[in-house]
Design a protein that fits this description.
Length: about 300
Amino acid sequence: MFDYKLLSALAAVVEQAGFERAAQVLGLSQSAISQRIKLLEARVGQPVLIRATPPGPTEIGRRLLNHVQQVRLLERDLQRQVPALDEEGMPERLRIALNADSLATWWAGAVGEFCAEQRLLLDMVVEDQDVGLKRMRAGEVAACLCGSERPVAGARSLLLGAMRYRALASPAFMARHFANGFEVTRLSRTPALVFGPDDFLQHRYLASLGIQEGFLHHLCPSSEGFLRMTEAGLGWGLVPELQVREQLESGRLVEILPDTPIDVPLYWHHWRNGGQLLGQLTEHLATTARQWLVPL
């Protein structure tokens, strides 16, 4: 039989990125958390954590985390069916990984009413759409939004649509770097904006224009900051169309190459045995996301 106190300690250490915060969340001492992890490792006969900063799960640790995540969701269903088991009457809670651009644009509008009706609290982990699935593979989240279609074992994926990005810059930036007119060959030698080391959207866009070499760029791991830096003329960048309609209409931003957007598909990944709540959220997103995303 599983000792869920031990599994909860493992989940807390991974989700809270450390022993100290895990202890605070569970109301235990840090040494008690360490003892529970050691006991769990003794029972499974191998390490469940990689002792790094932050700690990460081993392969067996990921399997245990996936199990814990699904058990939590199924327990919520049981509490709804047998209200006496839910002694504190606490709201439901889901941990979800999603990309910063979705969080800054359409996500709140898509889930706001659902969360209010279902008394749902969200723990949102921000990851680039190209790598968000790693959080689910590690057992840290119950669902994720990402650009990959292929689900991890035990999960399903659903195409919600695509976010349309446009390559934009300020008029001042264009005047400074393309005073004699836009030239694609010069684009790699003008500063770009990249969200982070896992963001390869600009790379793909340049490749579509026939530019394969490296390019100058700032790193800006903030969706709002990315837009502000583009408006300030620090570089050109691929920005969600949903985020810049006002700027395009007013002329504060212009497309560096008109009518050349790039569409990024977004897949919703969720556990097959994720319980009723996760299934309802999936159905809700399948219906509402189309208001903001481009169909593929």
